[in-house]
Amino acid sequence: MVDLTTTLAGMRLRNPVMTASGCAANGKELHRFFDVSALGAFVTKTVMPTPRSGRGTPRMAETPSGMLNSIGLQGPGIDAFADEDLPWLAGVGASVLVSVAGGSAVEFAQVATRLTRSPAFGSVVGLEVNISCPNVANRGLVFAIDPLASAKVVSLVREATPAGIPVLAKLSPDVTDLVAVASACLTAGADGLTMINTTLGMAIDVERMRPHLAGITGGLSGPAIRPVAVRAIWQVRGAMIAGRIPTAPIIGVGGVASGRDALELIAAGASAVQVGTATFHDPLAPARVLEELEALLDELGYATVAAAVGAAHPDGSGR
Ligand SMILES: Cc1cc2nc3c(=O)[nH]c(=O)nc-3n(C[C@H](O)[C@H](O)[C@H](O)COP(=O)(O)O)c2cc1C
Q1: Cα 254 from Cα 227, distance rounded (Å)
Q2: What's the rounded mean pLDDT across residues 226-243?
Q3: Which residue has a Cα nearest atom 5 of ligand 1?
Q4: Distance from the CA of 101 to the center of ligand 1, in angstroms?
């Protein structure tokens, strides 16, 4: 038996496996396949201040070892989420990591404030700040490309969130210096980081000679981006180990479809992992990844999952 309990930025979780934002809606569909309260945490679809219908179709395109999506943050808005979706998740006993966003730093904080007034706020174990969201004041470029804009969002959400509820910044890999963005978010008060969001891609339908997606470009996810996630986690964890940026826990996400994939992200420095795209073709994927991870840790002789975090770094425990 491997001890899978995970303490992360003050969150005490049953185990280190979570859903990834936007890949399991708000839990009801997945709960038909397995008990979502068995996961370390359920990560919600990003919640915005008001209802949004999202982009036009087609919104998805298959790519080698992955997929492109251009959803446009469709959702019911924070009021419906706080009054209906969150109470449902609380009712099944899930530990909920709520993904929040807005078109301005102030809007992000408004979503956080409204969330705290939900009757089900007790089920919330943390907030994940989706800074890969267009900044209305900066030509719609995402906050995540700019360390200053990212820091402002994080500090306002941190102020709006009760002490004891961790705030994690979810980073985009589409930057030249990821460590600089990580550093800005941590200095602004982020209690941890989630990495990575999708990486920008595009596909063209040569029969029609038109872009595949109505939104033209889209976010690439799935196994194709796992090496990018491993690299990102490695670089940021490395900067923490070297004392170049504040130390904080990392949640890894990107192309995890098996326990072995999850362990790769953990060995690079992630304390927990999220399963996204794999859920679309196998709704049991998060539960299966958890089982496989436990079996693999056992086989490799780990008594706890915590002992494997960052183990591949030169000063990690190695093997
Ligand atoms: C269809 C789809 C919708 C997504 N929606 C969100 C979202 O609302 N908020 C967010 O932070 N990330 C969103 N993501 C990104 C995932 O949470 C995750 O970071 C990314 O897909 C990489 O993990 P994966 O390869 O396991 O899917 C979405 C991804 C997909 C494929």
Answers
A1: 8
A2: 98
A3: 22
A4: 14
- 125: Cβ below 6 Å to ligand 1? no
Nearest to 277 by CA among 39, 86, 61: 61
What confidence tens digit (pLDDT) does each residue in 165-216 have? 999 999 999 999 999 999 999 999 999 999 999 999 999 999 999 999 999 9
Check if 133 is active-site. yes
One of 2.120.10.30, 3.90.226.10, 2.60.40.1610, 3.20.20.70 is the CATH number of 6-54+73-199+221-308, namely: 3.20.20.70
